[in-house]
Specification:
The protein is mainly alpha-helical. The chain is built from three helices and no strands.
Length: 82
């Protein structure tokens, strides 16, 4: 299956808005990863089968979300140092 997304419009936003979006997205991603790991529903089993995941199926998602949050901390620290 190939999915394509085409935006209707693109709007530039300020840094604070982008940072809020990154934080919210990372937090929600971490919550979903935790829910995926803690539940054993039919849908979780189907996802594990479909994507042939090992016992830590979504660790990359968690790590990427944490890296996004850490990158914001680094940016803020560098901005404070200037």
């Amino acid at each position: 299956m190939n999915v394509s997304i085409r935006p209707e419009s693109i709007t530039a936003v300020d840094e604070a808005t982008r940072d809020r979006w990154v934080v919210e997205t990372a937090e929600r991603t971490i919550e979903r990863v935790q829910a995926f790991e803690e539940t054993d529903t039919e849908y979780v089993r189907m996802a594990r089968e479909q994507y042939d995941q090992d016992e830590r199926p979504v660790e990359n998602y968690r790590r990427t979300a944490i890296e996004a949050l850490e990158s914001l901390e680094t940016e803020q620290a560098e901005a404070s140092a200037d």
